[in-house]
Every structure is written in C-alpha cells, then in structure tokens.
Amino acid sequence: MRFVRQFLAVLAAYAVGGVAINAVKDNDWLTLVVGLTAAALVLFVYGWVVRRTERRQALDVALEGAGATFGWGTLIGAGMFSAVIVNLSTSGHYEVDGLGSVQGAIGLVGFMAGAAATEEVVYRGVLFRIVEEHLGTYLALALTGVVFGLSHLLNEDATLWGAVAIAIEAGFMLAAAYAATRNLWLTIGVHFGWNFAAGGVFSTVVSGNGSSEGLLDATMSGPKLLTGGDFGPEGSVYSVGFGALLTLVFLWLAHRRGHIVPFGSRRAARAGSAATLPR
Predict the structure, then answer these.
(1) Domain CAAX prenyl protease 2/Lysostaphin resistance protein A-like spans what residues (predicted)?
(2) What residue ranges in the chain does DSSP mark as E strands?
(3) Cα 190 vs. chain centroid, distance in angstroms?
(4) Which of 27, 53, 138, 246 ranks highest by number of CB atoms within 10 Å?
C-alpha cells in the first residue's frame, strides 16, 4: 500500500509537469520557468508523500547540502557525456560547424531539469528504494534498470538496442549512484548533466526524441554502433562502456560504505545516509 500511494502521488506530479512543459515547449523562456517549477513540484510531492506514508522526513531530498551535491552530480553527468563526444570527435564522427542557439539552450535547462527530477523521483526515489528493501540492492538495480530502459521504447525514434543501452548506462548507473549516496540530488544532477550536455551543449539527439538546438551547431555521421544513429549518442557503445564503468565505481563505493542491502534481509535501505561523493 505504501508503494502504491507513493507511486501514484509522484506519477500525478510527473503527469502534471509533463503536460505543462509540453504546452509551452515552443517558448524557450516559458519552458525554463515551467520546467524548473515541475522539478520543484515533484520533489515537494515526494517529500510530502514519504512523510505521510513512512512517518519520517525524506532525507534523500533534504535541502541541506543539496546545491553542492546536485552540482557534483551535474559535473559527473556532463563529464561522462563529454567523454563520449571526445571519442566521437577524435574518430571524425562528430564535427562542430559553428555556434548554435543560446536561447534554445536556456529552454533546454528547464526541460532537462523537469525530466531529470521527475524520472529520478519515480525510478530511484520510489521504485528502486522500495524494491531494494524487499529484494536487495542488486536485484532492485537490475529490475528497475530494465524497466527504465524499456520506458524509452515509447520515444519517437526508439530502438530495442537504444532501450538496452539506456538500461545499462543510465538505469543501472543511476541506481548504483543512489545506492552509494542515498541522495536523489546526486542522481538528479548526474541525469541533468548528461541530458543537458547532450542536447543543450552538443546539440545531439537525446534518447531518440529528435534533434536538439543547443549551444553548438554540429553534425554527426558514421556507424550506428558508434554514433547511436537516430537514437542519438546514448545508443553508442562509448556511452554503454562509460556507463557500465561508472556503475561499477558506484557499486564499489556502496559496498565500501555498507549500503548494499542483501537479498532476503528485508532491511530498510539507509535512505538517510549522508550524501557524499567518492573519496
């Protein structure tokens, strides 16, 4: 019952935010404002429903230290995607033709912030956290990662390989990041940094949702295995490789901090653990 109430509450906020963002998507400045508002709404609803159903504060979205943790997460996500672009660029598959649109990038800040916050609250804050309490960290990571990947099959230029790639590089990696830090600000930052770098900076296709108009005017060409084709660089083997590597790093950190929940223990995950980055 707790899971159902939490899931329905955040899903309602997710739906409201999504409808509002889509309604203003042709206006970059309104998209910025509405996207940031949608992010704040879903975080507020998550904190409220956790207090109501679990009789505790949702410490994984506590405001103390949120800015720094989100900032570190953004750097990790943006750095990870930049590494993908560096590999594509040095092999001649990504070329910058000039400057793109600053206003377009501003709109994408709001759009990507809304998407990152709502998806992290749904998939890591509710699904992963509660499934982990019953099945343990590793099974919860595998199951919610696959669900996260499959959800991207609904996108415009979705492919089965794209869904598999998303499951590995994002679904598994972000669940591992949450397990390591027990902090949604970190995973939201990683998610936002990756998406904004992809669309808002390098102007690539994000998850098969069509081209983005970001800070750079660029073109991509080459084999789908490297570029991701119409699905975008998230379908690149470079992205999968970097995501898998970071998943292992976060799982090592989670194990070091004693955050791994064994299968069958039914021990509540320590969602209130301090949010820190790898030492």
Answers:
(1) 106-196
(2) 94-99, 216-220
(3) 6
(4) 246
Whole-number Å distance between alpha carbons of 161 and 51: 39
How far is 244 from 96, CA to CA, in rounded Å? 28
Token pair for 61: 């979205």
Contact present, 186 and 70 (Cβ < 8 Å): yes
Residue with the two structure tokens 């998230």: 234
Pair of tokens at residue 129: 């956290």
pTM (predicted TM-score): 0.92
Q: What does the block give as tokens for 138? A: 């590793």
Given a contact cutoff of 8 angstroms between Cβ atoms, the answer to whether 243 and 170 are in contact is: yes
Phi/psi at 21 (nearest 5 deg)? -65, -45
Percent of the chain with pLDDT over 90: 85
Residue 72 CA to residue 68 CA, distance in Å, equals 6
264 in the Ramachandran plot: left (φ > 0), alpha (ψ -120 to 50) or beta? left
pLDDT tens digits along 206-241: 987 877 889 999 999 999 999 999 999 999 999 999
Q: CA angle, corner 46, sides to 244 and 22, nearest 5?
A: 80
Q: CB under 8 Å to 22, separation ≥6 — which residues?
A: none
Which residues fall within 8 angstroms of residue 256, CB to CB, at 6 or more apart?
none
Q: How far is CA 196 from the centre of its chain?
A: 11
* H or E element at residue 138: helix 137-151
